[in-house]
Queue: 4 jobs
Job 1
Amino acid sequence: MRSIKVHTTNSTNLFLRGYYRNHKACDNVYVLAEKQTAGKGQMGTVWYAEEGKNLTFSVLIKEIDILLEEQFKLSALVALSVIEVLEAIEIPKLQIKWPNDILADKHKISGILIENVAVGAKINASIIGIGLNVNQLLFANLPKVTSLGAITGKQYDLEVLAEKLANTIETNVYKKQKQPLGTVLDAYYQKLLGYKKVATYKLPSGESLVGIITKVTPSGFLNLALETQEKQFAIKEIKQLY
Ligand code: BTN
């Protein structure tokens, strides 16, 4: 896949959105930046990454054929692709924290921000942004965060990782998008933190809940079995403690 390297941009997701708007007929492409001045996390948060040490990149995948009502299929395929690449370089104890944070030994190593372009009832193109902590070794005041280097003591080439991730995502999306959603979800559940296990969750009000993840819905809601009922939550509505 073609790649674009930039030194500084506001956000690689925003960069690709602009690029796509101006090059509608382009092939799939990924962009990596040494520095983002306004890196975006999920739910309007900011994604911080030390300049030049971590992977901040986004992939544009076109000609996707996934129903919007099953949009979680794409999210699951991307998270599983990141795990596949990290497993291939022997990073141990990888898990997904719903919806698509990647954890290594219960520390966040990667975050994913997917922005879809829909046509009618289908996802047609997607901008898949990935932040992967790579060669940064210290994360001040972030005890639940880690990096490839912190885990293995090795240095990694960011461009090699970006190429592997982009190609693995592209291959898996095209190969698996027509698999039944249940098949994709089964693979996702195998890696999902808290799946069929008792865990504690926090509501925005500060209230704690104890529950068991029984499923994730096709559009990506978390289904928790609570003491007396089953309930579904959107990403803004609940936080899993770990
Ligand atoms: C999260 O866990 O909150 C998602 C973080 C996603 C960060 C990546 S870094 C590259 C791409 N560009 C952005 O602005 N965000 C994503």
Note: The chain is about 25% helix and 35% strand.
Job 2
Amino acid sequence: MTDITQQTAYDDNNIFAKMLNGDIPYHKVYEDDKTLAFMDIMPQAEGHVLVIPKQKAVDLADLEAKYAAAVLMTCKKVMQAQRQVFEREGITQMQLNGAQAGQTVFHYHVHLIPSSIHELGRHAVTQADSDKLADMAKQLATAIEN
Ligand code: AMP
């Protein structure tokens, strides 16, 4: 019988771990001592941001309370900035647990997508223009600062 509590082990070489280690570039929106927010490189709508904890958590099952709280507070900052920058109220918050749910990067992360759930683009398929992502990251970072 399948053990439904079984999950993928944390891989120190996953792409988000590499970002946290400063090994690969990304478009930063916000950072504090417990979280990092950056532009999704294959957005499901314009302005798609990911928020990650600075904890080695594969999914929600691993997430410590203090990081859960910190992620949520960062999500709130990012969501408010998205509302301002993209001049829309509707921001979809999404988070996938396990490959069976469609999770593709096994470091816990929350998606914040300026889109209706009914209009989301395909998941992790089309790479966005890097200059546009850089520009959006800058606008969102400025909105968070002010
Ligand atoms: P999930 O399938 O929920 O694990 O989501 C992983 C997300 O990470 C997808 O939306 C991808 O587009 C995104 N992603 C993958 N590689 C990168 C990267 N190098 N920089 C930013 N986002 C990425």
Note: Residues 99 and 106 are 9 Å apart (CA to CA).
Job 3
Amino acid sequence: MPDTSLFDLSDKVALVTGATHGLGMAMANGLGAAGATLVINGNSSQEKIDKAVAAYTDAGFAAHGYRFDVSNEDEVETAVAKIEDEVGPIDILVNNAGVIRRIPMLEMPLDEWELVIRTDLTSVFVVSKAVVGRMVERQRGKVINICSMMSELGRDSVGAYAAAKGGLKMLTRNMATEWARHNIQVNGIGPGYFATEQTAPLRVDGHPFNEFIVGRTPAGRWGNPEDLQGAAVFLASEASNFVNGQIIYVDGGILATIGKPSNE
Ligand code: GCO
């Protein structure tokens, strides 16, 4: 039998924020399949959280759900204390929760801008501060920040999101710098264009963006959420114990190429 113990997450507790759906859910499923006990967070409705927990449990994973706002310091501290008390020490934190607003910058209301920065960037600081303080005491831990193509590239209408995700790349490097000496590895995953609810408006038949993305991606397709599981398990496991401050782009090759004219 092959020895896959380097990637084994049995006895590990993984908190994945925003894992009631989408990429967070796919990554949590990957961590669960590698043996982790799952703790998922959401902030919309308890019903949505309960439904997600039931789906994880049906898949055969140990799963727990907690409702809190990842950008509210008091709620986060209370929830993290409760999770560690009820489930156990958090070994793996995946900062996945995020929102997007597609509004040209000159039309972007300040409150929408602030909502995006708060949810996609500030919340990672808030949640990590609560969780990593405890990891430092234990002298071990894994943090995975979910970045984006927009950590590297601009695009019309996603200014706030790009500012937050570009900031998140640098926050990842800084966290890695400050915490590596405590045996805490902080890295990022940068998903390319994935078929999720978030990109559903861009994938409707006849939308020019659909064809554009397929043409712009060397692999010639949208990503399936499951395509992220390998990178998530790697960065959550002992296999990455000397990997610090890297962003692994899982993008079918988009960032590797300048692209090609549409008629080729
Ligand atoms: C967009 C997309 C992106 C993606 C993703 C890419 O409008 O361009 O929604 O922002 O969601 O983060 O990596």
Note: The chain has a mean pLDDT of 96.
Job 4
Amino acid sequence: MQIAQDKVVLIHYTLTNDGGKVLDSSSGGDPLAYLHGQGNIIPGLEKALEGKQAGDKLNVRVEPAEGYGVRDDSLVQQVPRRAFGSVSKVEPGMQFHAQSAQGQMRVVTVTHVKGDMVTVDANHPLAGEVLVFDVEVAEVRDATGEELEHGHVHGPGGHQH
Ligand code: ZN
């Protein structure tokens, strides 16, 4: 069965950055399960998987625009320490959920702390990165009606609910 719109796809993958550093991998665990054509995974990878089938291996290089986006410097902000309320210690690398001016929830990463000012970055940690995926297609199957209704895959590697 070929990968096409609304198929359930299970893949094993290793993600490295342009410099060959491993960022993420499914090796040793369940394959990642996603519903094809529903934006469950980044566009560049989804496009490359179209038409592939179980057993196919591919190496995909994804530019930032087709990955987690380009970095947006306006998403880097300085906020006063008191904005973190009861958090006793704020350190670089910590991540918090914050509400944007448009009311969307996003994850911000603390990048710098100086005196009473904290610098936070709301870019995706992989924004601006060229991503290289080594992928092996493990399985392709039809989605159930319930999966199509929810827009995601159920079971191992997918949503458990
Ligand atoms: Zn569901």
Note: Helices lie at 43-49, 145-150.
